[in-house]
Design brief:
The complex is a heterodimer of chains A (401) and B (229). Chain A has 13 helices and 12 strands. Chain A is an alpha+beta fold and 401 residues long. Chain A has 2 domains: 2-50 and 264-400, no CATH class; 93-225, Cathepsin D, subunit A, domain 1 (Beta Barrel). Chain A has a 6-stranded mixed beta barrel. Chain B has one domain: P-loop containing nucleotide triphosphate hydrolases (Rossmann fold, 3-Layer(aba) Sandwich). In chain B, the strands form 2 sheets. In chain B, strands 6-7-8-3-9-10 form a 6-stranded mixed sheet. A 4-stranded antiparallel sheet of chain B has the order 2-1-4-5, covered by helices on one side. Classes of the chains: A alpha+beta (401), B alpha/beta (229). Bound molecules: adenosine-5'-triphosphate (ATP) and magnesium ion.
Chain lengths: 401, 229
């Protein structure tokens, strides 16, 4: 294609200027890749941390709420009243666990008794949320054993695990007895087997672990459980799995995303900020291309005029400029994707003194295809303005310049 | 034989807002094949304007133009471009070579652009033309490395590339020194004689005029005088 030859000659005509232009495009693309990889990396890190330490689907008894029952006509309606005295529980939990364990998508199952209690030491009373589990299942949902800082994770029949902050507040240490008073009004003296530290203040101050056998009389639940926590092979499948389990068991199934709606909101807000930065880096790239080509078209008025005089068509002239834009876009975007990847890859290897990544960057999530296509397409669009003005030059005026 | 150029009743009035400038009034100009005609007249008499009209670069206010048997004044913009490309050759005071191309490529350009590339046949014709204008040893020079006179000779070769019926030259020797101007003139005369190419040359230079077969003088927007031979 002869237009291509001419476009290439024009670009090579001033190699320094063209190199600078391509460098500018590559820089903008690098910025785009960096911000995309950073935001994706941040989202991945946040969800990973959350899904690693919490259940992916929680099963609870179907909620019994007050509701209006439809009557014969609009006048008469009756209301179903929910008893709050009766503790909601899952009685046939063994069959539910059996069903769950046949599902290939399920990684771990933990039937639990959850309830509220107070830890009492002398005059001091501290509220805790009790999670009672099968001792063999202690680490199934959120690994606790690795976070034990004092004592051990062996619950036994009268053991309790408490957080480091609670221990500190009440002056308790591993091996000491402590009184637990449940919301069912039952007191029992337990032994602190271990103290854990998760780093999350709310957990370290307000959560206690018991074995499910210990908890049964304390919460007056001789056979049932209050909830079943499930971990999946793929946390991304939580919503579909939850819907399936809800239909299959009649229990209320909640996916982790719905329990942590704030996270989704934060991720969306973060993604939008990212989009704004991406848009600005692309726009500056495109303005650069448009202005460089406009300058070139202006400088070449005489030549363009003579070409038009000896009968070269307007579309030929326009094509020469659009092709220049295309070439700059393709080369600049390729270089930018490459340097963006190298930059992100390098940043991902940087670690903080504790060995974790300094920046939660995901080099493979740089949006390379998107930025390549956007830049190339945008470069063509940006060259349309100079291409049109070059093609519309009046040959006579251009020659007389 | 029919005329290469037959322009009748050409009038040209430039309009800039409310200001009207009447440059040409009722000009008739006819050229036979093989003529080498000079267009003379004082500065501002409308020589370049008439040349641009005949070269289909400017639409006249009134009048009709026939070139090589074809009525052209009503052609569309794109048709004019094709007509210029196939039938007309242009030589300007400033060569306007394409600086990023070699002498050969510059000469071949008018054929290459519509065809989508420089074919071997085009290249060899361009080289023949360059040899003819005495630039055998400069064929692959970039245009920027030629002297002023050499550039103008490349521009002449370029004007001949598509074997035009009519070659329009506006002050072709205007920016050259005596010797270079003489060479360019000899060249045009030679092409005129050998190819029977018809030339219309705007010039102030009486030396140029003297070498032409016909001299047309413009004054006050009209043809004042035509001298043959
Ligand atoms: N676009 C235009 N608008 C208005 N007036 C114009 C325009 N182009 C040319 N003119 C006027 O037309 C007249 C003739 O100009 P032209 O260039 O044809 O003269 P010329 O005979 O070629 O002169 P010279 O020998 O100096 O080249 C001039 O007075 C000029 O000012
Ligand atoms: Mg003039």
């Amino acid at each position: 294609m002869f237009t291509f030859t001419v476009a290439r000659r024009y670009l090579f005509s001033n190699p320094g200027q063209t190199a600078l232009l391509i460098f500018g495009v590559a820089l903008g693309v690098t910025a785009f890749v960096f911000i995309t990889a950073l935001i994706q990396g941040l989202a991945i890190r946040l969800t990973d941390e959350l899904t690693a330490n919490s259940a992916h689907v929680s099963l609870e008894p179907a909620m019994r709420i007050a509701r209006v029952l439809p009557g014969e006509d609009a006048e008469t309606a009756s209301v179903a009243i929910v008893s709050t005295f009766q503790r909601p529980q899952i009685r046939p939990w063994r069959s539910t666990v059996a069903l769950l364990s046949t599902q290939p998508s399920v990684l771990a199952i933990s039937p639990q008794i959850s309830g509220s209690a107070f830890v009492v030491k002398g005059e001091t009373v501290a509220p805790v949320a009790v999670t009672a589990i099968e001792p063999s299942n202690l680490d199934a949902i959120s690994p606790i054993s690795p976070k034990i800082v004092s004592g051990d994770a062996n619950l036994g029949t009268d053991g309790i695990l408490i957080g480091a902050r609670l221990a500190e507040n009440l002056g308790l240490s591993a091996g000491q007895p402590v009184l637990l008073r449940t919301d069912r009004g039952i007191d029992r003296l337990l032994t602190i087997r271990g103290i854990f530290q998760t780093g999350v203040q709310a957990l370290d101050e307000r959560v206690a672990y018991l074995s499910i056998q210990t908890a049964r009389p304390l919460f007056r639940l001789p056979e049932g459980v209050t909830n079943i926590e499930v971990k999946l092979v793929d946390p991304g499948e939580a919503r579909t799995t939850a819907a399936f389990l809800q239909a299959a068991t009649g229990l209320r199934a909640t996916a982790w995303q719905d329990k942590n709606a704030y996270l989704e909101g934060a991720l969306v807000a973060q993604a939008q900020t990212g989009k704004l930065i991406q848009a600005f880096s692309l726009i500056s790239v495109l303005i650069g291309i448009a202005s460089a080509l406009s300058l070139s078209a202006n400088r070449r008025q005489g030549e363009i005029g003579i070409m038009r005089a000896f009968g070269v068509s307007r579309s030929f002239i326009a094509a020469v400029f659009v092709l220049q834009g295309l070439l700059i876009g393709v080369v600049g975007a390729s270089l930018g994707c490459f340097s963006g990847f190298v930059l992100c890859f390098w940043l991902a290897t940087l670690t903080k003194p504790d060995g974790t990544m300094a920046l939660p960057i995901a080099p493979e999530e740089g949006g390379y295809v998107a930025v390549f296509l956007l830049t190339t397409f945008g470069a063509v669009l940006a060259s349309v303005i100079p291409a049109r003005s070059a093609a519309r030059l009046d040959p006579l005026e251009a020659i007389q310049q | 034989m029919s005329a290469v150029l037959d322009a009748r009743g050409i009038g040209m009035t430039f309009r800039n807002g409310d200001e009207m400038t009447e440059v040409l009034k009722d000009v008739d100009l006819s050229l036979e094949p093989g003529e080498l005609a000079a267009l003379l007249g004082a500065s501002g008499s409308g020589k370049s304007t008439l040349l641009s009209i005949v070269g289909l670069l400017l639409k006249p206010t009134t009048g009709s133009i026939e070139i090589a048997g074809r009525r052209v004044e009503a052609l569309s913009d794109a048709e004019r471009a094709v007509f210029r490309n196939q039938r007309l050759g242009f030589i300007f005071q400033f060569h306007h070579l394409l600086p990023d191309f070699t002498a050969t490529e510059n000469v071949a350009f008018p054929a290459a652009a519509p065809a989508g590339g420089i074919s071997a046949a085009m290249r060899s014709r361009a080289r023949d033309l360059l040899a003819r204008v005495g630039l055998s040893d400069r064929m692959d020079f970039p245009a920027t490395r030629l002297s002023g006179g050499q550039k103008q000779r490349v521009a002449i070769a370029r004007a001949l590339m598509n074997k035009p019926e009519l070659i329009l030259a506006d002050e072709p020797t205007g920016s050259l020194d005596r010797v270079a101007a003489e060479q360019v003139l000899d060249l045009m005369r030679e092409v005129n004689l050998e190819d029977k190419a018809t030339f219309l040359i705007c010039t102030h230079d009486l030396n140029v005029a003297a070498r032409c077969t016909r001299r047309v003088t413009l004054k006050d927007g009209r043809v004042e005088q035509v001298v043959q031979g």
